[in-house]
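Weekly sync notes, structure subgroup
Attendees: PM, AL, DS (notes)

Item 1: joint prediction request from the bench team. They want all two components modeled as one assembly rather than separately. Inputs as received:
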Amino acid sequence: MNYYDIMFYLFAAITLVSAWFVVTTRNVIYSAFFLLFTFFGVAGIYVLLAADFIAVVQIMVYVGGILILLLFGVMLTNQITNVDIRTGASNLLPASIATGILMGAVVSVMWFTDWKIQPTEAPTTTLKILGRLLLTDYVLVFELLGLLLLVALIGAASIARREKE
Amino acid sequence: MYQFFFDLTGNVIISTLAVALVPLICVLLVTLFGVWLERKVSAWMQDRVGPNRIGPYGIFQCVADFVKMLQKEDAVSSEVDGVLYNIAPVLVFAGSFAAFAVIPFASTIIGSQVEVGLFYMLAASSFVVAGILMGGWSSNNKYSLLGSMRSAAQIISYEIPTALVVLSMVMLMGTLNLTQISEMQTGNFWHWNIFGGPGWALSKFLLIPFMVVGFIIIFISTLAEVNRTPFDIPEAESELVAGYFTEYCGMKYGMFMLAEYGNMFAVSLLVSVLFFGGYQSPVGYLGNVLGIKWLVSLEQFSWFFAKGWFFIFVQMWLRWTLPRLRVDQLMTLCWKYLIPYAVINLVIIGIISLL
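Output from the run, pasted for the record:
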């Protein structure tokens, strides 16, 4: 077991343990902060997979953007107004059946697929390859996603805009 | 630098820790003497003497302050949220310290040469935001919560003009690697990016005004990102006591101060890498003339530190000169002035770099 293995198990443990607490803890704020460590662990695993750009994007978008927005939303409701927001479990039986089927499907796909394995060398820099692919082979998807984000942005601005008297 | 320590010790973990120790010592020293300089600068601006008892010009005042801070009792209010309250200062400092991993202090003193260096520096600051929100919420204090809300809103807003200016520089230089960006500006000071970058093409002279605009935008927005006056509404003393770290004392308060000065130093170094040649000397090296190799690294390190300290001094200068902005003025400045100017600047630099 070399250092990379140790690092991998460390990040995997961080991800799994914090994800477990995200789901089980009763306090919404705790869930949000445990999510921070989940994102961090996933980013670490991306780094070990030689996907440095994706790892940084993971931190930038999920921790810097989505998590902060989530915290804003929850914080403004809790603690100041003394309204205790707690999560609970309901409809345990249907939920466990549905998630059990989903998990079975995912595991069976992983197990029975005939994965093509070939030895490749991890690229030292993924940045240039990724940029070239995004602007050549996947340019339509890329532009459509940009358009989607623009629509969301305009929608948010028009909702938040103050009505003229 | 990693290879050097690896050859020395032959152990991966020890050499990694040794590499991490270099920026840590830098941050600690910058914080110690930054606090002293802050007090001295404020004293000069207000026609006072400032700390003058311990050592020449009171320079060891910071050491005395540090010892006092370490000895303080860790008084914790009974209403705080125990776990998060204790994690928050660590998270904030970890976020600000993480940015130093990619900064090249000299051509031989480099932590990591990852290709995504600049982007990583921007991303590391998001842990600071999460830590500030954590500290503000767990303190269970209205002032703390308001301060952390303001701080988070301010940091994520001002990240946009910063990122736009960084993007225009990346477009021009064609790399995100901070070491390569520094290496491209090698030679004398007219090769620095603020003077249009290396070479003598026509585009160099066309670029100069837009480089100055980009520098001003990134300086203002990084000033706001590190919560310094005139953008210090998160810890506005007259309204919020001390903002998000109101409830903290002792070394936990010290961690927030370390993070603040570490952030100031990091953004100063970022600005000097992007526009002022990083560790490059403006005039050439004595070590090259004499043929002593290690002297070149030492000179580069000193130049880089001098540039960093200069921008820290400008930040302090502005702090004791300008009044604080209101919240709405702050957001107006960011969204209605800096971001449009940064976008226009981005487009113009793109067109010029195509010439």
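Discussion: Chain B touches chain A through 28 residues (CB under 8 Å).
Action: AL to compare against the crosslinking data before next sync.
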